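Q: What would this chain look like folded?
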Amino acid sequence: MGTDSQMTPLRLGDRGAAVADVQTALRSLGLLPDRDGTTVPRPPTAMATLPDVALAAAEYDAATELAVRHFQQTRGLSVDGRVGEETYRALNEARWSLGDRLLRYDPERPVRGDDVISLQERVHELGYDAGPVDGVFGPGTEEGLRRFQRDYGLTADGTCGPATLRALRQLGRKVTGGRPQLLRQSASFVDSGPHLIGRRIVVDPGHGGDDPGFTAGETTEADLVFDLASRIEGRLAAAGATVYLTRGRDQNPAASERTAFANDARADLFIALHVDAHTSAHARGVASYYYGTGSGASSTVGEQFANLARREVVARTGLLDLGSHPKTWDLLRMSRMPAVRLDAGYLSHPVDRLVLLDARVRSAIAAGVLAAVQRLFLPAEADPPTGTFVLPERL
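A: My prediction, written as structure tokens:
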């Protein structure tokens, strides 16, 4: 499930100016035929400049829904064909290319867009740390850009304007042999040592409070993942980590509050827990998600941990392996540390539900998450095969 929850999503059959905005964005990306039948991408323009009558008549038709689904798929969003806040914001961000506008840090309203991703990737390739490649122009991006400008004799104002753009385009890559951020993050994790003592880990049980999530009989997703989170919390704490839960049993923080909590705690790792549900009778299994755009920008340590956690849980429970996938959900994107969402089975599937209702299986899932966390910090030569790692009784 995605995180479009604050605005009423636009869907098939809706009409009005908001629909016209969405269609304008889709046309600018070449995903929706123009009125003359062409699908040529156009530079960013102001949203919907049609007369009021045309705006009101704009209809969310089948072609619009198909274009939205295609966009969601390629952008790592939940593919439901509807436009909520996250999809609408992503449509706006996707229309910007590097050079379309001045880029600078604004702490009140951070600039977001594909042009920021291009800038962050370019600065990383030149050997400067610009923070996570997340499409948000934050203080890390500004500092990395200032260092580049200073070294190359430019005005070190942290603003990406014409002179900086020319310099970025003229220079070749200095970091080669892999993604620069992967090299940097991997080295940082190895240097930090193969143990959990002193690590700060935030565990985020989904839903809660007035949002029970999917419900099957008397079992709710919110209660099930809270139980899982409590078991994981106990095991990680016993291994020496400092663990925080984002909510109590009766609370339901917004996604932005959950990530802000983890950022304020200066966590080393963020683990979001869900169980999934689907109308299909065949939907079952374990999946994991990490921040990634599908075009190269990603949380590299997050990707590594997503694979570890999923494989450890599958090895210990026998649940179907659905793989790890890049997503641009804000829950993953706005976390300042490696963040992963683990969907530990489908509560809507009768077999998965029976498995998840077994307390021994939930303990096995917690053991799998603990093993994955510990393996994340182990040097490669000491990393045991999946499903075999057991933390020593005495640390």
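The two ends are 38 Å apart (CA to CA).
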